[in-house]
Amino acid sequence: MAAVSVAAEWQQLYDRYYRKPELYQLRWNHVDLSRNKVACAPFGGPIAAIRDDSKIVQLRSESALRKLRIFTSAGAQISETVWKNPGGRLIGMSWTEDQTLICITQDGTVYRYNLHAQLIEPNLSIGKECFENSVVECVFWGNGVVCVNETFQVFCISDFKNPRAVRMAETGIEDFPLCVAVIEPQYTMSGNVEVLLGVGDHVLLVEEDGVQQVGAGVGPLQKMVVSRNGRYLASFTHDGQLLVMSTDFSNIIFEYNCESALPPEQLSWCGMDSVLLYWDDVLLMVGPFGEPVRYLYDEPIILIPECDGVRILSNTSMEFLQRVPDSTVSIFRIGSTQPAALLYDALDHFDRRSAKADENLRLIRSSLPEVVEACIDAAGHEFDISRQQTLLRAASYGQAFCSHFQRDRIQEMSKTLRVLNAVRNQEIGVPLSIQQYKLLTPSVLIGRLINAHQHLVALRISEYLGLNQEVVIMHWACSKITASLAIPDVSLLEILLDKLKLCKRISYATVAAHADKTGRRKLAAMLIEHEPRSSKQVPLLLSIGEEDTALTKAIECGDTDLVYLVLFHIWQKRPSLEFFGTIQARPLGRDLFISYARCYKHEFLKDFFLSTDQLQEVAFLLWKESWEVAKNPMASKGSPLHGPRIKLIEKAQSLFSETKEHVFESRAADEHAKLLRMQHELEVTTKQAIFVDSSISDTIRTCIVLGNHRAAVKVKTEFKRNDGIGLKFLLWRQSGIGMPWKSFRRRKAHQWVIDHLWRHALMRMKEAYARIGMAKEAADAASQAKDGELFGRLKLTTFAQNAAASSIFDTLRDRLSFQGVS
After folding, report:
1. What angle do CA 65, 68, 71 make, to 5 degrees?
2. Alpha-carbon span 690 to 699, nearest angstrom
3. pLDDT tens digits for 682-715?
4. Distance between CA 422 and CA 457 in Å, rounded?
5. Rounded to an integer, what distance in angstroms lies between the CA atom of residue 753 and that of residue 733?
């Protein structure tokens, strides 16, 4: 009997069955579809309605102001707003894939609204041509629209996510087209939108770069609509024929005489199996075979195409017309003896404790896996919860006798149905079928619930399906802040934290940023304290004016990049003295600032050191700047730039002299300035740029080489140098004059210099003797140098093949008793 009652609701179209269950009794009041422009979103989406200003209607108890109202599919009002937009009459209205409401007025202005009737700025424009020549018709699809203006020009916006109006090729027509249809870009060979215009007895195919005539002789066409897959075109001709043909017009699939030349108000595909035509009081469903099915209505309706059927909206109800799935037909068709029907019947017998249950199971045992799958599939396509449960029980009953079946299929379907039943609830109003749910995906469904402020359902579904709950909670928190202007910050913080703590890795910074954006800076500061990630915490603290806290947090986390970010922000925002006081109390921040300023901001760093009484640091900077002056290409030897350089060094010496701890640096700077003056004078007098930046010894040596002994003595006296013997030795060595070794050996002064030079000379002599084969002389030189390592190296390498030389080295080794030479 249950099967009979189910099948009794079906209508047969040739060999296929269709059903039209009622989804909701609508909750709205005083909404007449005949008086309003209505836009319905697919996938069980919202409904937008506004009074049609192209009709003369009687105002009952409503306001004269037009209101844009948005409802759920169950008729519950979500939001409303007064329509005050200029631009002339409203021509078209539709929802995009992300549930943004698009409204196009006569002058080509595009207004966008979100689900809560809030205008999204900025407004868009289709173009100057539409402003000058009004828009007459709009055809929407997915995320795009095609508009035709009074001069028969065609314009297209292919994606509202990247809105750019494109003018299509000139049509060359002189009368307004009878009908317009669009083939979406993903179904065309070119990948661009193709617009079909019904003109005369043919159709114009309009693209961006050209127009071609197709379908000659099929018209005139009064209505056209393209199937969801872009392969077929359903059209209504001037003589009452319904033609279904391929979109390339190569062949006609089928035709049907509707017995009325009056074009239908609406023409729509029902899945891919049939076409619906609606006149004032009748809905006609036509298939490729068999007699059409008629549904009578005594109130206006709107057809909402879906991927697996059509939702039918009337003034009082929402229905869903769909083809009955094959699995459901096999179970509930009247008189069915299919294995799935026998399993369903076996469950009924089992519940009544009848032996007939076992008999049915024996009949279908060979096909039991397929039968169980059919029951699961039929349960998924049902809207009635009790019928879902019965079908799943039948599947579970059959699975108990089936060893070769995927055990988690029933669990998966149960999960899916729980989600679908939750969103189908009249309070939520999203009547998704299982096919729509799979095509939409759970994450998109959760996003839509969030946008509709159904946060609790979205959170429970996310938790149930194991999806990320953070997005739901963050959106709830931001919405709560926006809607709770009257709640004090402390109280609201407790409410928010109670929910935010549900997710361990949630971004408090994002919620705090929203609080700051809504003008609740104190709440934002309290929220940001709970953000564990400094990389998100510090920038937000800066944006809300908490620079000191941001600097403290950045220093605590030890991230130098964050510290520099805060330092630069404070640097630009605060006066210098206040900035210096801020960083002086924080050693890490101070040191990082000094490191940066030493490289790029000397003047600012000097101000900092002066403000903190660090005169010696200023002196060091001045001294460093003097060397930077020397590196200047313009500061050539003998240049007047040495005047500023000396002044810098003198300033440094003056600052050093003010501190007792830097006596050495003060004297060094004083002598450096004196030396630079003398070197500059020498370059001027000798006209040779060879003195500046050389050492005192090099300056004296250069003077002696140039024969300017008086200048050398002056430099030596000025700087009290007592290394005359060493200098003379260097000069003799430089000039190539024979070196008086014995006189140097008799002198005790500068003994270490003499010993070193004497040893160096002996080594040079040894190498020379060795190169010309004089073993005895080389050995004598090595012995005088008292270098055992050198002695051994000569014996083992240079004279290894000379027996006489080796004998000489052995004799000297025994005499001198060198260690480590063998």
Report:
1. 135
2. 9
3. 777 777 777 776 777 777 777 777 777 777 777 7
4. 8
5. 14
Measured from the Cβ of residue 650, the count of other Cβ atoms closer than 10 Å reads 16
CA 124 – CA 111 distance, rounded (Å): 7
DSSP of 427-454: TT-----HHHHHHH-HHHHHHHHHHTT-
What does the alpha-carbon distance between residue 413 and residue 801 come to, in Å, rounded to a whole number?
A: 98
3-state secondary structure of 123: strand
Exposed, middle or buried, 792 (CB in 10 Å: 0-12/13-18/19+)?
middle
Report the pLDDT value the prediction gives residue 190, as an integer from 0 to 100.
86
DSSP string, 306-331: ETTEEEEEESSEEEEEEEPPHHHHHH
Instruction: With beta carbons less than 8 A apart as the criterion, state whether 119 and 158 touch.
Output: no
Write the CB contacts of 173 (distance below 8 Å, at least 6 apart in sequence): 152, 197, 199, 204
Do residues 309 and 268 make contact, with C-beta atoms less than 8 angstroms apart?
no
- Residue 673 main-chain phi, psi, to 5 deg: -65, -40
In the chain, which stretches have pLDDT less than 70?
A: 1-4, 60-62, 602-605, 607, 610, 612-613, 615-643, 645, 648, 650-656, 669, 693, 721-779, 781-822
pLDDT at 315: 94
Q: In whole angstroms, how far apart are CA 656 and each of 454, 614, 629, 693?
A: 73, 10, 20, 22
The three-state secondary structure class of 278 is strand
User: Which candidate, 177, 180, 225, places its Cα nearest to that of 201?
Assistant: 177
| DSSP code of residue 170 | P
- Residue-level pLDDT at 819: 43
Measured distance CA(529)–CA(309) in Å, rounded? 52
C-alpha 623/C-alpha 631 separation (Å) is 13
Handedness of CA 486, 488, 493, 494 (dihedral sign): negative
Handedness of CA 527, 451, 113, 191 (dihedral sign): positive
pLDDT tens-digit map of 466-490: 998 999 999 999 999 998 888 999 9
Specify the pLDDT at position 263: 92
- CA–CA separation, 141 and 143 (whole Å): 6
Query: For residues 607-622, b (16+ Cβ closer than 10 Å) or e, as one string?
Result: bbbeeeebbbbbbbbb
Instruction: Pick the closest to residue 180 from 191, 195, 165 (CA basis).
Output: 195
Nearest to 382 by CA among 397, 395, 368: 395
Residues 808, 563: Cα–Cα separation, whole Å: 74
Cα end-to-end distance, the chain, whole Å = 119
Q: In degrees rounded to 5, what are phi and psi of residue 628?
A: -65, -35
Two structure tokens written together for 378: 């039929």
Name, in order, each residue with C-beta under 8 angstroms of 436's C-beta and a sequence gap of 6 or more. Answer: 43, 44, 306, 307, 308
| Contact (CB, 8 A) for 447 and 426 | no
pLDDT attached to residue 686: 78
pLDDT in tens, 304-343: 999 999 999 999 999 999 999 999 999 999 888 899 999 9
Residue position matching structure tokens 């409401």: 101
Three-state SS sequence of 525-541: HHHHCCCCCHHHHHHHH
pTM: predicted TM-score of the whole model, two decimal places = 0.74
Looking up tokens 């059927």 gives: 309
Question: What does each C-alpha distance from 766 to 138, 756, 781, 787 come to in angstroms?
Answer: 105, 15, 5, 11
| Distance, CA of 716 to CA of 678 (rounded, Å) | 12
Rg (CA), the chain: 48
Closest CA to 446 of 426, 433, 427, 465: 465
| Number of C-beta neighbours around residue 508 at 10 A | 24
